[in-house]
From TrEMBL:
Name assigned to this protein: Peroxiredoxin
One annotated GO molecular function: thioredoxin peroxidase activity
NCBIfam families registered for this protein in UniProt: PRK13189.1 (NF009668)
EC numbers: 1.11.1.24
Chain segments annotated as transmembrane: none
GO BP: any one term: hydrogen peroxide catabolic process
Keywords tagged on the record: Antioxidant, Cytoplasm, Oxidoreductase, Peroxidase, Redox-active center
Gene Ontology cellular component terms for the protein in this record: cytosol
Family named by the database record: Belongs to the peroxiredoxin family. AhpC/Prx1 subfamily. Belongs to the peroxiredoxin family. Prx6 subfamily.
Function text: Thiol-specific peroxidase that catalyzes the reduction of hydrogen peroxide and organic hydroperoxides to water and alcohols, respectively. Plays a role in cell protection against oxidative stress by detoxifying peroxides.
Length: 212
């Protein structure tokens, strides 16, 4: 029986790494002080992965605007990554400006639970990890081999996490900036009784929203 992958845990330090990339050797500490989106793909020179990399590249400036860096990963070599990004530039007129980890040893992929034996023993699935400026893992998203990610949703997720941290609130389904946010629910009967008079848009004691 194939051993199940060990997954990192939300709200705990993200697994450290020290790995070669297309921009030189990098460690998790290199991204300290910024948000990081680390995302894996099964292989270079594959069509679904190509569309995803184009999607990340097109939104790279928007990620930078929210102090977020992008870092790709697959178990291909640095030479393969370079050849593929050059191919994307030639065929799709898109520059891949972010680094890509060459995880030939599969160490980073295993540490982050990117290898799913049910999908492949030798390729990282489409996993995405959002890591905050303190190096804490804040979100994980996993996709199958045959379905591409929504890069816009990943950007929205980072914005939502940053806003929640800044304003001590939670975000409703599909929240985008400008929409009301959810006020944390009362924790005692006394707080629940007082909630209606606190000036929020309160539907019931446990469900209140406010504008930022």
């Amino acid at each position: 029986m194939t051993e199940a992958p060990t997954l990192p845990r939300l709200n705990e330090p993200a697994p450290d790494f020290d790995a070669p990339t297309t921009h030189g050797r990098m460690t998790l500490a290199d991204f300290r002080g910024k948000w990081l989106v680390l995302f894996s793909h099964p292989a270079d020179f594959t069509p679904v992965c190509t569309t995803e990399f184009i999607g990340f590249a097109k939104l790279q400036e928007q990620f930078a605007a929210i102090d977020t860096q992008l870092l790709g990963l697959s178990i291909d070599s640095t030479h393969s990554h370079i050849a593929w990004t050059r191919n994307i530039k030639q065929n799709f007129d898109t520059d891949i400006g972010f680094p890509i980890i060459a995880d030939l040893s599969m160490k980073v992929a295993h540490d982050y639970g990117m290898i799913m034996p049910g999908a492949s023993d030798t390729a990282a699935v489409r996993a995405t990890f959002v890591i905050d400026p303190e190096g804490v893992l804040r979100a994980m998203l996993y996709y199958p081999m045959n379905a591409g990610r929504s890069v816009a949703e990943i950007h929205r997720l980072v914005v939502a996490l940053q806003t929640a941290d800044s304003h001590a609130c939670a975000m409703p389904e599909a929240w985008v900036p400008g929409q009301p946010v959810i006020v944390p629910a009362p924790k005692t009967p006394e707080e629940a009784e007082a909630r209606a008079a606190e000036g929020y848009n309160t539907v019931d004691w446990y469900f209140s929203t406010r504008n930022l």
